[in-house]
Specification:
single chain; alpha/beta; globular; Enolase-like, domain 1; 4-stranded antiparallel beta sheet; 8-stranded parallel beta sheet; TIM Barrel
């Protein structure tokens, strides 16, 4: 049985193609720690630990300190024992979700490499093509954000996740502007948006073979239950259809989430509220949301799988998302989404914010699609 020989990591900073702004902050660069696990048989697995406004304690310096602490605990151990090691490390460092998750991806991939197994096939190989949405950051200055929206339209994205801030008036104005650009560019201004069928199939209202656009909104914990309901009501009053509202409230505002669950006209998707299986159990038992957003970057491999299984059994909506990651980390989500075919909503767009090649290993980027196949 191969064992872990060493861990190696490095920091990467990548400029972003547009300002990435949410209710939590804004940035123009994506910063991550790339970690590789090397086994004594020559097998290697690579993972990514992004930095995020959501977990401000996980700075590059802090991540490197934790990895240096962990390294001697893993070196020499059989690679097949990594799930037990990850469980121990999560208990040891419960406040370093992304650090342990990125490490777990690297260990998982090293274990697969030792067995000469394919990552997509590991997840059952359900589909070789998936479609992602594209994020519209909360940048009210249209001179800055409109080129990003129009570029996304030219690439034929159909699903737009609009970041909102928690200031209802500002958010309403921003959503109106985004909706206007999408309507005029995609639908020629002739019709307003309508609620599409879940898989975006079929004809538009005029009978044309054209797929309408979809708007999702993401609050990133910026709202109260009252202000979230206010925004939804005002958007509906403007005939701006919204497919879902992701994490409008603070992650531990359980009272507010219960109220939204009962009263929201659209599905509420829990993101920051759910980091582990126990969090998902609370969402289910207390009826806090209509669905959950699984991110391998925040939950790793094993907890993501547990959350997925719990959510499916409870018949919750399933979303898969990402942080501001390179394709090292993002690819783990692509393989999981395509391999399992389990997700209702796919939000794996971080690579589009970075300058990138058209392919990563056996994943080809084709506008809004990812295709998995043999490397050219």
């Amino acid at each position: 049985m191969p064992s872990i020989k060493t861990l190696i990591w490095k920091t990467v900073v990548r400029p972003m193609r547009t300002t990435f702004a949410t209710s939590l902050g804004s940035k123009t660069c994506a910063t991550s720690v790339i970690i590789s696990v090397h086994c004594n048989d020559g097998s290697v697995g690579v993972g990514e630990i992004p930095t995020s406004f959501v977990l401000p304690n996980e700075t590059v310096k802090a991540i490197e300190t934790v990895l240096a602490e962990i390294k001697p605990l893993l070196c020499g151990r059989p690679i097949d024992d990594y799930p037990a090691s990850i469980q121990r490390l999560r208990k040891r460092r419960p406040d370093f979700h992304m650090t342990i998750s990125g490490l777990e991806v690297a260990l998982f991939r090293a274990a697969l490499a030792c067995q000469n197994k394919n990552e997509w096939a590991y997840w059952a190989g359900g589909s070789k093509t998936i479609e992602t949405d594209i994020t519209i950051p909360f940048v009210p200055n249209l001179k800055i954000i409109e080129p990003w929206i129009r570029k996304s339209i030219r690439k034929e994205f159909r699903i737009y996740k609009v970041k909102v801030s928690g200031d209802v008036d500002s958010d309403l104005k921003f959503c109106r502007a985004v909706h206007k650009i999408l309507t005029e560019s995609i639908l020629g201004g002739a019709v307003t948006q309508w609620v599409p069928c879940p898989r975006l199939r079929g004809l538009d209202k005029s009978g044309h073979d054209r797929v309408p656009f979809v708007i999702r909104i993401d609050g990133n914990q910026g709202f109260t239950a009252k202000s979230a309901m206010s925004l939804l009501g005002k958007l509906a009053g403007d005939s701006i259809a919204v497919e879902l509202f992701e994490q409008p409230l603070k992650r531990d505002d359980y009272k507010g989430m219960k109220m939204l669950y009962k009263n929201s006209p659209v599905p509420i998707i829990a993101d920051e509220t759910v980091f582990c299986a126990d969090d998902c159990k609370r969402v289910i038992s207390d009826k806090l949301a209509h669905g959950v957003n699984i991110k391998i970057a925040k939950s790793g491999i094993s907890e993501s799988l547990k959350i997925l299984q719990l959510a499916k059994r409870a018949k919750l909506k399933l979303m898969i998302g990402c942080m501001t990651e390179t394709f090292v980390g993002l690819s783990a989500g692509v393989y999981l989404a395509a391999g399992t075919g389990a997700f209702d909503y796919i939000d794996l767009d971080s690579i589009h914010f970075l300058h990138h090649r058209g392919r990563y290993k056996d994943i080809a980027i084709d506008g809004r699609f990812y295709h998995i196949g043999k490397r050219k």
